[in-house]
Fold this protein.
Amino acid sequence: MKKTYKVEVDCANCAAKMEEATKKTPGVKDATLSFMALKLTVEFEDGADIDSVMKAVVKNCKVVEDDCEIFL
Amino acid sequence: MTKKQKKVLYRIIVAFAMVILVTILTNIISIPWVVEGALYLAAYFVIGYDILKKALKGIRNRQVFDENFLMAVATVGAIALGDFKEGVAVMLFYQIGELFQSIAVGRSRKNIAALMDIRPDYANIMVDGRLEKVDPDEVAIGSEIIINPGERVPIDGMIVAGTTTLNTSALTGESVPRDAAKGDEVISGCINLSGVITVKTTKDFGDSTVSKILDLVENSSMKKSRSENFITKFARYYTPAVCYSALVLAILPPVIRYFMGTNPQTGAWIVRALTFLVISCPCALVISIPLSFFGGIGCASTNGILVKGSNYLEALSKTRCIVFDKTGTLTKGVFEVTQLHPENDFSKEALIEYAAYAESASAHPISLSLKKAYGQEITLDKVRDIREIAGHGVCANVFGKRVLVGNRKLMEQEHIRVTDYSRAGTVVYVAVDGAYAGCIVISDVVKETTKDAIKMLHAQGIETVMLTGDAKAAAQRVASEIGVKNVRSELLPADKVAEVECLLQQKGQKDKLAFVGDGINDAPVLSRADIGIAMGALGSDAAIEAADIVLMDDDPAKIALAMRISRKTLSIVKQNIVFALLVKAACLVLGALGIANMWIAIFADVGVMVLAVLNATRALRIRKA
């Protein structure tokens, strides 16, 4: 299951950190964040509850870069 | 400028004015240093409060090595050492640099969005005799939509009424308009130029060409190139490494000097360490690479070349060998009469006329090409007794004469002596009333741009190979005409895969191999090659699915252009990596030696970033040749 979300972030390095944080979130199989397209594509593990996983993703991203926004 | 950017701009202006004011004030009248310090601090908070806030949050979240933290430490450090002015100035320049970068990135995002601005906003449908604009998403398959001149075709479909010309340049990069009339397919994303047409939709909006293309381009930056991955990995080690070095630089030399009995100069070494911190931000590297690829992909798509990911653009620049499928790729894939060889006092016109009449009842591609070459209306009552001789040709009565049209076997059966032209391609022999009238050579025609395209590729040092299922003689003729030396003929589809496998083993480790096909029956080879390039994909879903790079029209010259774009993009990427690393390394060394001050450090950080971003946007503007 793959989903794409719009994100808002100002610096490229922060985007890379957010990508890393998303990948480490439980329930996420793989993730890519394109700073140029401002899009986060998340591949979920089978049977993962997307809503709660994404909430955790947002939380983890806020930790590495407070000044970011993920539009769920 | 966005609201956020404007706010930063105002803060920069205010802080800058405050710094100047204080500087002038201290020069005119003597004010106590407490007041001066307080004024500088005020300016510092105007410009840097958000950075400080973010730095504090970072510390709380244990993300100590982010750039906000680095800037906060560097500037607070400078202020703590009593150099108020430098602390404010560093923060000021950092913010100016950030603003610059934000504007530059925003602008290139917008540029690329404008290049790909082919999303139709609405579709016109007839409701109760009145035109109504609806969201293309809501139009069901099989509905009739009306497209006025100047409007974009929103959904793929077929024209049921009206004639027009269509501008396909947004899709193919081709500027010559295409004629379309009732019964023709129209592809979404084209612009209707001249007439009102009614189109019966054959697809949903989501499955239409325009949606597929937009999806593909927008997602292309998700497939990251190796240089991108390298740099993110690099940044992960680089920043902490520099930070620890800074710490060492601040502590070790003063301690050593203390034990050696000299003045430890603690303040000076701390300043050097702070300079180090400012240089350590990896942003210039991290941003300029995806930006360059984004620009390169954007530039390619305006030329009708869709690249499915940065990794493919990168691989293309390393391509040493391009394997072409012949039919439909290098040649037009349609048969045409290319040579007429009349004999025994027959004229060229008579030769083709007899052949076209005799073949008038057949729908075979060869018969069609004869009729096309004749080019005039055929009066059917002039032909009688048409008899097909399977595997040989036809026999018919044309203008009261007995005409034989067919291959050599037919002529031999009828004991007619012919001149041999079989090397040239497919040959049709004609005999009239038992006398040999000459022969007609039919072959697959090479595209106008093929020869130049091959020449351009050779000039770029690329090896070309042609694969074909055709007979050896015909393949050799095409190959020598277009200048490809390496030809493998008489291949079955499975053999093509084997040939590509073989070529893949021969090439060097780092070299890449690209295969160019028409995408319809080449899918296995397209996926086996390092890079699969599908051609003439406009409207063909299969090709868009199977290939890594998609050429919307069928112009082989686009391959050479794609190569140029990929190489230019990669050279920009390399320039940026080398430039940023060199400047940073140099500044780090100079900073450690105490030669580079905070100002140079700021340049090494934001200055390099802005230059790298500006360089990266050049990838958007790569010209044809």
